[in-house]
Amino acid sequence: MDFIQSTFIGAFELRKNLSDLLSKLQKKKTEIVVTQNGKPAAMLLSLDKYLEMKELNEELEEALNELSNRKYIKTLKGEVEIVRSGKGLKARKLFQKLGL
To answer: First and final CA of the chain: distance in angstroms?
Structure first.
């Protein structure tokens, strides 16, 4: 999200035009920065945009947790070496083994 390219609106204008702004958020899947005394104070997001960002954040947290687990990384490196040495399973056989 590029903060500078966001729409900025003052708190007073927000109160006057809330219904129109909510419609704009839903249609454009964008964000609006609300300013107070000329300074950014809050951000309004469409629900779709918020849920997209929340899902991405959860995926990143999960990835960071996995990457901080030394045992997981050690196992992953070992499996990569098996594949690089040519001893890994072909995708078709792996899927078959996993019942996929």
So the answer is: 37
